[in-house]
Amino acid sequence: MSTSTTLKNLIEIRDLSVTFPSEAGIVQAVRNVSLDIRAGEVLGIVGESGSGKTVMSLSMIGLLAESAKITGTISYNGVNLLSLDDNAMSKYRGKDIAMVFQDPLSALNPVHTIGRQIAEALHIHSEISKEAALARAVELLEIVGIPRPAERAQSYPHEFSGGMRQRVMIALAIANQPKVILADEPTTALDVTVQAQILDVLKTARDMTGAAVVLVTHDLGVVAGLADRVAIMYGGKVVEIGNVDDVYASPAMPYTIGLLRSIPRIDGAESSRLTSIDGAPPSPVALPPGCAFAPRCPAAAPQCDASVPALVSISPTRMTACVRQSEIASFQSSGKLFVEGPRHVAQTSTTDAVRSKCAA
Ligand SMILES: Nc1ncnc2c1ncn2[C@@H]1O[C@H](COP(=O)(O)OP(=O)(O)O)[C@@H](O)[C@H]1O
Ligand SMILES: [Mg+2]
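A: This is the predicted complex of the input protein with magnesium ion.
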């Protein structure tokens, strides 16, 4: 996996905010997010349910609800995707930027065969004969590990298991050689054993296409095994970002520290020192005036409520949003922040315990 900082930026998100009107008030789903997606990287986006991960992903392919109010820019090849109408956006969607959804059954057409759906996805973006498209569909099914692909191309979505359907979604996503694959909780609905297989297929898809993969998940274990970089989201903001190994070895933002503390080690050691973060994420219609994590943060001080902390560089490859950044290390070593000492995170774990701790 490449973690070079010299990789070209494929997508540059700048000051992205997304709100929705609601009866309870304005839902602030994504707040002033700036983020780069680099060519060929796997970028994990991790956060609890409601932190804005899906809304941010959907804004990159123009699939947000009509009621969404969006500000900021999302640049791809010098084009601000947010300035495009749906017709112009549809030339990028599925071609340059593809998406794998959590629930493949709702993303697939129930009345068409799998083979036909993949062939149609090929047709939309290229001049290809019907026969060639169907032959390519079978090849794609083989690449994603569907047994007897020529035969299975004749099947309908409901005839596939959840894992097989997710393989089909990945085949669809790579059909047009995208530059970016957005995978939103691609394994969340699947059994643990199947999850690992699907992550392997995603890896294969990345290797075959060279596409960047944005892996959206609430499960830090999923990201540990696959991502080059990780962005941690809380309350609609990115609160920490860096190379995945660095973030896991020495998390800098108290929320990241808490998240990592709540993952059981795969070898079971130190299980008595597992902690969870008390409290619940803030309502997106009533966010605190300062740091959204302050109400749950053991290191919170009056200055944390004064203003929303900016995401600032603490090293050439790491940014974090915490006004008490310089004091966090000593907080941690004195045992005041969740538990003391950085915890090793298993590289492959996707246990039920992990899932229930960071519930989606
Ligand atoms: N179409 C919508 N209308 C109103 N609120 C929405 C809509 N879509 C998402 N939200 C709200 O935006 C916030 C972020 O949602 P989402 O991005 O789905 O979170 P995540 O994927 O991190 O779980 C949530 O509070 C959610 O309820
Ligand atoms: Mg989501």
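The longest strand covers residues 9-22. Residues 254-357 form one domain.
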